[in-house]
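User: Sequence in, structure out. Go.
Assistant: Echoing your sequence, followed by the structure tokens.
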Amino acid sequence: MEIPENIDVVTASAIPEVWLTSYQLLNYSGIKENEIALIHAASSGIGTALIQLIKKRKAFAIGLCSTEDKIKFIEK
């Protein structure tokens, strides 16, 4: 996996870990098209990856966050 020039190796190593964890969580949940998933800490790395994977599966995500700034972030 190629590492972008603006990311150090430690940060880059976390990217696949977040996505693999999110992928496993989604598949273990068994969520199907048109179902709803509740995502705690939705603005975290795993939370944002899960939201994207859930949308790709044509399901719906409801995200919980602790601050207004985090809510605005995941609304994007």
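User: And one key feature?
Assistant: The two ends are 27 Å apart (CA to CA).
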